[in-house]
Design a protein that fits this description.
This protein is of the alpha+beta class and 273 residues long. It is built from 7 helices and 7 strands; from the N terminus they run E-E-E-H-E-H-H-E-H-H-E-E-H-H.
């Protein structure tokens, strides 16, 4: 049995991306200004899902406005991913990044996409109910202010990651039971744990075990998982502290990663395009 083959906790009602705005950020912490690096420059595999040009990024099927090709994240977090890969070597797997730093323009496009989608799916819901549902999957960028930490989406910190696992030898992605950004109950981290509990899948189901491997390998290195997305992990930002609080593991600390602008050369490139 894998060292990571333990159940992912089943949560009845986890906090959402709309619940972390009031968490303080230690602006004086030296890590607040830590540089961004493209994780691929340090050997981490990945491809920015939102910038794909082959139309194989369901449910968008095109480049999402505002997306960047790079997988920017804080340097320390890239080093943590290297450590995760070291742990995964014995299982013949490695992490594969879909998304890391996400510009506000891209975040806004995602918010609008899911607002429209859930409005179609729940025509009887009022605006507050739609906002609550979108918050399960997307941080709200509508009031973004670079000087107001209450308005910072998780991915503009360079400390939020969306990722999966792949076979280290073949490069084939491991089956997690859903595609990235599925944004339904199937994407919830405990989805297959619930099916196992009700007898609908066996204990050796590959999807169940692959999720467990990703979940616990990342947690062992210090990341927290966002319960509504099996692929989303944080370290050092407000969502990280929110999940520590929820899990009863908080030390009462503030977050230390907050909003950071894109590197100047990349920002200029975006303006030209």
């Amino acid at each position: 049995m894998s060292a990571y083959d333990q159940p992912i906790p089943i949560h009845r009602r986890a906090p959402t991306a709309g619940n972390y705005g009031d968490i303080p950020i230690a602006l004086s912490d030296p890590r607040f200004h830590e540089q961004l690096v493209d994780a691929r420059s340090l050997g981490i595999a990945g491809e920015n899902y939102y910038a794909r040009t082959d139309e194989l990024n369901t449910p968008y099927d095109e480049i999402v406005p505002g997306a960047v090709r790079e997988l920017w994240c804080r340097r320390s977090i890239s080093l943590m991913l290297i450590a995760v890969n070291d742990r995964l070597t014995r299982y013949g797997a490695e992490v594969f990044l879909w998304d890391a730093y996400r510009p506000v323009a891209c975040q806004s496009a995602l918010w609008d996409f899911y607002w429209a989608r859930f409005r179609r799916e729940f025509p009887e819901a009022n605006d507050s109910e739609i906002i609550e549902h979108v918050h399960q999957y997307v941080s709200d960028p509508r009031e973004f202010n670079p000087h107001n930490s209450h308005s910072w989406p998780a991915h503009v910190t360079g400390a939020a990651l969306d990722l999966t696992l792949r076979d280290k030898q073949s490069g084939a992605l491991l089956d997690m039971g859903t595609h990235f950004d599925d944004m339904t109950s199937t994407s919830h981290s405990d989805y297959f744990e619930r099916l196992l509990k009700s007898g609908q899948v066996p204990a050796n189901d590959a999807r169940l075990r692959n999720r467990r491997l990703l979940h616990w390998a990342m947690q062992e290195e210090g990341f927290t998982n966002y319960s509504y997305e099996c692929w989303h992990f944080d370290y050092g930002n407000q969502m990280y502290v929110m999940m520590l609080d929820f899990l009863g593991r908080s030390r009462g600390e503030a977050a230390w990663y907050g909003y950071i602008p894109l590197p100047a050369s990349n920002s200029a490139k975006m303006e030209r395009t």
